Amino acid sequence: MQQLMGIINLDHELDQLGELTYFRCGAAVPFAGRYRLIDFVLSNMVHAQIQDIALFVRRKYRSLLDHLGEGKPWDLGHKRGGLFILPPDWHDPTDKSRGDLQHFHNNMDFIHRGTANYIVHTGSQHISTVDFQDVFRYHKQQNADVTLVYTKVPQLEEHHTTCVRLEIDEKAGKVLNIHHELNHPNVYMEMFIIEKSLFVELVQHCIAHGQSFFFRDAIQRNRHNLKISAYEYKGYHAVINSVQSYYRTSLDLLNQENYAQLFKPKMVYTKIKYEPPARYLNNAQVTNSLISNGCVIEGTVENSILFRGVKVHKGAHIKNAIIMQKCEIDPNTLLENVIIDKEVHITSNRMLIGDVKKPFMIAKRHAL
């Protein structure tokens, strides 16, 4: 009998990435040339041999459905178990639940039917290589009711402002307090492990008392009645909850050490698309950039990330930019500090320059 089942809860993740979340939820935002943000937590669960995974979604999830399909790239396309994409609505007139508790209440069949005894609950905004089996071993060793995953941030940034912090007794590995003190380095990664029976009990209690959010109402406000342990994660970590954090984290991957920390420990799975290798024509000049399959480069690209099928014509100059799938950049164009979504056509002789702290953004399928 498998011991862990996964819940990826997107209900509390707001559309904070500007034009990138006009037509999709944050979990479906393209990242690092060929991936989506959802790929990282989903791959971590697959590496932990979690075979039953529920994805709780509420809005703008068409792009996510298209990306995930039946879950085959993650080896989750099983006849039994696998990947379940579960919206909250079922039109029950007796349903009193709200917030993310509505997801748990309306999809309780998934939880009851799973053979696992423990639940790994997470969101998609924290990019990491966390080993959920190691977290689970620690959870059992601590004999805890709940184990929260956190990381110590060496330098707090603006995008950490909204993150929950943990006050910890490091010798005992116990959580003493859960708060939002801005200068505290212990950032909660929105991941926890809990026994299934306790989870169901707490969900029912919260709904019966008119509460709305599991972490806040069942864990944070109930911390004195639960034995809550803290697992410190020490690997690669980034939180993507703003345009600036997305832009900075993306370009930080051009540093080979950062790239290796995220992608070398274990494979990150994603939807497979068969494209020819990138082509570099006679006038191409490319430095310190991540160029994906299917690209055709005839201009200059530096310190940038180009997704699949991007065309850069002769005389075009791209610097510190993120250019997504199937964009076309015409001749004599200058793009600097920009984020351009899918299928955008930039016509000749354009100059688009943003700021490092506020990149210029273009929503998908626009022409300029």
From TrEMBL:
<dbReference type="InterPro" id="IPR029044">
    <property type="entry name" value="Nucleotide-diphossugar_trans"/>
</dbReference>
<dbReference type="GO" id="GO:0008878">
    <property type="term" value="F:glucose-1-phosphate adenylyltransferase activity"/>
</dbReference>
<dbReference type="Pfam" id="PF00483">
    <property type="entry name" value="NTP_transferase"/>
</dbReference>
<dbReference type="InterPro" id="IPR011832">
    <property type="entry name" value="GlgDAde_trans"/>
</dbReference>
<dbReference type="GO" id="GO:0005978">
    <property type="term" value="P:glycogen biosynthetic process"/>
</dbReference>
<keyword id="KW-0320">Glycogen biosynthesis</keyword>
<feature type="domain" description="Glucose-1-phosphate adenylyltransferase/Bifunctional protein GlmU-like C-terminal hexapeptide">
    <location>
        <begin position="282"/>
        <end position="354"/>
    </location>
</feature>
<keyword id="KW-0808">Transferase</keyword>
<dbReference type="Pfam" id="PF24894">
    <property type="entry name" value="Hexapep_GlmU"/>
</dbReference>
<dbReference type="InterPro" id="IPR056818">
    <property type="entry name" value="GlmU/GlgC-like_hexapep"/>
</dbReference>
<dbReference type="InterPro" id="IPR011831">
    <property type="entry name" value="ADP-Glc_PPase"/>
</dbReference>
<dbReference type="InterPro" id="IPR005835">
    <property type="entry name" value="NTP_transferase_dom"/>
</dbReference>
<feature type="domain" description="Nucleotidyl transferase">
    <location>
        <begin position="17"/>
        <end position="160"/>
    </location>
</feature>
<protein>
    <submittedName>
        <fullName>Glucose-1-phosphate adenylyltransferase subunit GlgD</fullName>
        <ecNumber>2.7.7.27</ecNumber>
    </submittedName>
</protein>
<keyword id="KW-0548">Nucleotidyltransferase</keyword>
<dbReference type="InterPro" id="IPR011004">
    <property type="entry name" value="Trimer_LpxA-like_sf"/>
</dbReference>
<comment type="similarity">
    <text>Belongs to the bacterial/plant glucose-1-phosphate adenylyltransferase family.</text>
</comment>
